[in-house]
Specification:
Elements: E1 3-7, E2 10-14, H1 17-23, E3 28-31, E4 35-41, E5 51-58, E6 62-69, E7 72-79, E8 84-89, E9 96-100, H2 104-115
Parallel strand pairs: 7-9
Antiparallel strand pairs: 1-2, 2-3, 4-8, 5-6, 6-7, 8-9
Length: 121
């Protein structure tokens, strides 16, 4: 399973070797200063927009790769029924990141605290 950590002023998204191969993705580093929004998506599948290009999807189970649409490019690593961390960022290789992790609320709180974002509760 992917993991998200916040160290110093950087968010690190780390994928397993399998996730990297199947999603044609690599680990990501996002400066906290680039974050424009962060939240928990309880319906992670419903948050997907655009077309998968490239990547892998097992319908009804897992989605992994890059989703592209007008004006956005999203890094996706989600699983059915699992909430995901949603991060929007400026000036990065992806405009949006959607990643299922353990304890997404704690991760979002940590990112929000470090980036100065205000969370809707």
């Amino acid at each position: 399973m992917a993991s998200i950590t916040v160290d110093d002023d950087v968010i690190r998204i780390e994928l397993t070797r399998f996730e990297k191969i199947m999603g044609i993705l690599g680990d990501q580093e996002i400066p906290l200063s680039a974050v424009t929004a962060v939240s928990v998506e309880h319906d992670s599948r419903g948050a997907l927009r655009g077309m998968r290009l490239p990547g892998t999807a097992v319908p009804g189970r897992t989605w992994l790769g890059t989703w592209r649409g007008r004006g956005h490019k999203t890094m996706v690593r989600i699983r059915k029924g699992e909430p995901a961390v949603s991060i929007a960022a400026d000036g990065q290789s992806f405009t949006h990141y959607l990643v299922s992790v353990e304890s997404p609320e704690a991760v979002v709180a940590q990112i929000a605290e470090g980036s100065g974002q205000v969370l809707d509760r």
